[in-house]
């Protein structure tokens, strides 16, 4: 039977645990999370185990990426359950700092990002978001010094932002994107899916179906503009309030007008009741 993960909650404890992990020059993978772990998170852990000798999972609900009107206070916190799941995956170390450790009194620095962080997608609706994400991920990279870091592709713009940041700031971390894990009906797994009512949960997979329909139309030679319009209509008819449905260059997130102009990523964000869902697929 495998040993349960070491849980570090202070920087001295983290440093001691990392020094032990790195004995014999072991490589380390980091999986950053905000907890409330589901099978999508566990798939990231399994990929991390294939890419490094030792696996560290951070569990920290980061306040700086939430706006005042968002769900920081109600975001699900299930550490005991999360720790049991990570033990079942033979994770080596859980980094679970509190807010005071991450943002002590007098904390006054942050990482500002441009490029994919200003693509007019999530940043248009959550302008605070990527500054908070970049700062906390930068701190996690500095604290854990991983060789690789694993992020899910469901938050595709975030993946591009973190990848760019790690390269631009010479952080020495290889950022790896993992495929989106879905429920049987296609809904992308998310910690926020618990907010959906039974009726909303039945409707939610329409978002993925609309993305697939748009991709199908584009591949069949329909214009991107008309394909997106058809997808937006499907989403609205299902009862969503659409924030955006966009076709972007998969590498740069720049707007794209033709399938000939590069690999396309379709990205969507929409509200169903009080729950905001995001998703994306390649064309």
TrEMBL record:
Binding site for beta-alanine: 65
Top-level taxon of origin: Bacteria
List of residues binding ATP: 34-41, 152-155, 181, 189-192
Top enzyme category: ligase
Reactions listed under catalytic activity: (R)-pantoate + beta-alanine + ATP = (R)-pantothenate + AMP + diphosphate + H(+)
EC number assigned by the record: 6.3.2.1
One matching Pfam family: Pantoate_ligase
Any one GO molecular function term: pantoate-beta-alanine ligase activity
Binding site for (R)-pantoate: 65, 158
Pathway recorded for this protein: Cofactor biosynthesis; (R)-pantothenate biosynthesis; (R)-pantothenate from (R)-pantoate and beta-alanine: step 1/1
Record's keyword terms, sorted: ATP-binding, Cytoplasm, Ligase, Nucleotide-binding, Pantothenate biosynthesis
GO biological process per UniProt: pantothenate biosynthetic process
GO cellular component: cytosol
Predominant cellular place of this UniProt entry's protein: cytoplasm
Active site: 41
Subcellular location: Cytoplasm
Other notes: The reaction proceeds by a bi uni uni bi ping pong mechanism.
Family membership noted in the UniProt record: Belongs to the pantothenate synthetase family.
Known role: Catalyzes the condensation of pantoate with beta-alanine in an ATP-dependent reaction via a pantoyl-adenylate intermediate.
Subunit structure comment from the entry: Homodimer.
Record's protein name: Pantothenate synthetase
Taxonomy of the source species: Bacteria, Pseudomonadati, Pseudomonadota, Alphaproteobacteria, Hyphomicrobiales
Gene: panC
């Amino acid at each position: 039977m495998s040993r349960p993960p070491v849980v570090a909650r202070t920087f001295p404890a983290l440093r001691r645990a990392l020094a032990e992990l790195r004995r014999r020059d072991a490589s380390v993978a980091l999986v950053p999370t905000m907890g409330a772990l589901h099978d999508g998170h566990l798939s990231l852990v399994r990929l991390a185990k294939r890419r490094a000798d030792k696996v560290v999972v951070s569990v920290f609900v980061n306040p700086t990426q939430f706006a005042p009107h968002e769900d920081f206070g109600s975001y699900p916190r299930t550490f005991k359950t999360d720790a049991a799941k990570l033990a079942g995956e033979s994770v080596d170390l859980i980094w679970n700092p509190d807010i005071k450790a991450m943002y002590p009194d007098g904390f006054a620095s942050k990482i500002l990002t441009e490029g994919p962080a200003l693509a007019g997608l999530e940043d248009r609706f959550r302008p605070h978001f990527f500054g908070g994400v970049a700062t906390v991920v930068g701190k996690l990279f500095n604290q854990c010094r991983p060789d690789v870091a694993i992020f899910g592709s469901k938050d595709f713009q975030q993946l591009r932002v973190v990848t760019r940041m790690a390269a631009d700031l010479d952080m020495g971390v290889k950022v790896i994107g993992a495929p989106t894990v879905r429920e049987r009906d296609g809904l992308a797994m998310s910690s926020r899916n618990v907010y959906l009512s039974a009726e909303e949960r039945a409707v939610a997979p329409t978002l993925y179906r609309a993305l697939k329909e748009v991709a199908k139309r584009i591949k069949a030679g329909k214009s991107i503009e008309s394909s997106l319009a058809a997808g937006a209509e499907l989403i609205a008819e299902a009862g969503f309030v659409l924030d955006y449905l966009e076709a972007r260059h998969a590498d740069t997130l720049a707007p794209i007008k033709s399938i000939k102009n590069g690999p396309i990523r379709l990205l969507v964000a929409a509200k169903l009741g009080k729950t905001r869902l995001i998703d994306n697929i390649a064309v």
